[in-house]
TrEMBL record:
This is Hydrogenase maturation factor. Belongs to the HupF/HypC family. One of its GO terms (molecular function) is carbon dioxide binding. One of its GO terms (biological process) is protein maturation. Gene3D superfamilies: 2.30.30.140.
Length: 76
C-alpha cells in the first residue's frame, strides 16, 4: 500500500521542493524529475518525493474527500 498526500508547492530550490500539506508546516521533498514546478502548484507526495502534479480542482477534491472520511471515522 502506498501513502500519498496532496500538497501545495511553497518554494523550489533545485531538486528540493518545499510543500505545505495544508497544516501550515513546510516540509522539503524531492522534485523527482519534475522540473517545471513553481510556487502555487499542487502535487501529490509519496514517501518524500513528488509523484504527480495536479490541478487546484483535484487538490480541493482530494481534501474534501479526506474531510468526509475523517467525519465518518469520528462518527463510527
Amino acid at each position: 500500500m502506498c501513502l500519498s498526500f496532496p500538497a501545495k508547492v511553497i518554494d523550489v530550490q533545485d531538486s528540493i521542493v518545499f510543500v505545505d500539506y495544508g497544516n501550515g508546516i513546510i516540509e522539503p521533498v524531492l522534485a523527482n524529475g519534475f522540473e517545471d514546478l513553481k510556487p502555487g502548484d499542487y502535487v501529490i507526495v509519496s514517501y518524500g518525493m513528488i509523484y504527480e502534479k495536479i490541478s487546484k480542482e483535484e487538490f480541493d477534491e482530494i481534501l474534501n474527500y479526506e474531510k468526509e472520511i475523517n467525519s465518518v471515522i469520528r462518527n463510527v
